[in-house]
Specification:
Layout (H helix, E strand, L loop, with lengths): L2 E6 L6 H12 L2 E4 H15 L5 H11 L3 E4 L6 E4 L2 E2 L7 H11 L2 H22 L1 E6 L2 H5 L5 E6 L2 H14 L6 H17 L12 E4 L5 H13 L1
Parallel strand pairs: 1-6, 1-7, 2-6, 7-8
Antiparallel strand pairs: 3-4, 4-5
Helix pairs in contact: 1-9, 2-3, 2-4, 4-8, 7-8
The structure holds cytidine-5'-monophosphate.
Length: 225
């Protein structure tokens, strides 16, 4: 794989799993940009300063300097001041606060800049990278040679989130997960800066009824085309 594969779409489409597996299968790096927004949100929650937007912005932008993303698809990691925060950023507190933090323009600008540095490093290091998020094909790497936008119905996405939560040992209630998926997609799609949408040149792939293996097979075909 040469260059960038941009993988966008709402939550619960299987983006993370297929992006990571695609990168591993192609000898490419892997970057989960959602984890970066989540880690900044954790920094804000820990500061206790999430009350006003200007405090939130200050804490989140400052925390970008403390972030470390490991882009090896066989052992991806996210650290905040050296601490592995992977499991904490997937919890309910961060999940319910992340859309508000990621709607702040200065936070997005700081993270996009960091993401581009990581992408350049990966391309120098191993030639290619699979980057997943919401705005990769539209903002972060608008000239990516391959852009994929994964979709799935709300119910399927909520069911996938639930399965993930169960696997990670977190409580999972269908109605609550569905409500969260809806709320987060609404916030992510209607924010002023970089709202979630498929780039005009993205290939839209509806994953309802497709297994992870099916999606991966299709992506591998696209990458080798
Ligand atoms: O992908 P994940 O569900 O972990 O992303 C968490 C949140 O981070 C999203 O709901 C969205 O608010 C934000 N995000 C974003 N832009 C990205 C990746 C994630 O705004 N590129």
């Amino acid at each position: 794989l040469h260059g960038v594969v941009a993988m966008d779409g709402p939550s619960g489409t299987g983006k993370s799993t297929v992006s990571r597996r695609l990168a591993a299968a192609c000898g490419a790096a892997y970057l989960d940009t959602g984890a970066m927004y989540r880690a900044l949100t954790l920094a804000v929650l820990r500061s206790g300063l999430e009350g006003t937007e200007s405090d939130t912005e200050k804490v989140a932008v400052a925390a970008v300097a403390d972030l470390e993303s490991v882009t090896d698809p066989s052992a991806p990691a996210i650290r905040l001041s050296g601490e592995d925060v992977e499991s904490e950023i997937r919890g309910a507190a961060v999940t319910s606060a992340v859309s508000a933090v990621s709607a702040i323009p200065a936070v997005r600008a700081a993270l996009v800049e960091r993401q581009r540095v990581l992408i350049d490093e990966a391309i120098t290091g191993c030639g290619g990278i699979v980057v997943e998020g919401r705005d990769i094909g539209s903002v972060v790497v608008p000239d990516a040679p391959l852009k994929v936008y994964l979709t799935a119905s709300e119910d399927v996405r909520a069911a996938r989130r639930e399965a993930q939560d169960r696997k990670a040992g977190r409580a999972a209630d269908h109605a609550a997960v569905l409500a969260d998926v809806r709320r987060r997609d609404e916030l992510d799609s209607t924010r002023k800066t970089s709202p979630l949408h498929a780039a005009p040149d993205a290939l839209v792939l509806d994953t309802d009824g497709l297994s992870v293996d099916d999606v991966l097979t299709e992506l591998l075909r696209l990458v080798t085309d």
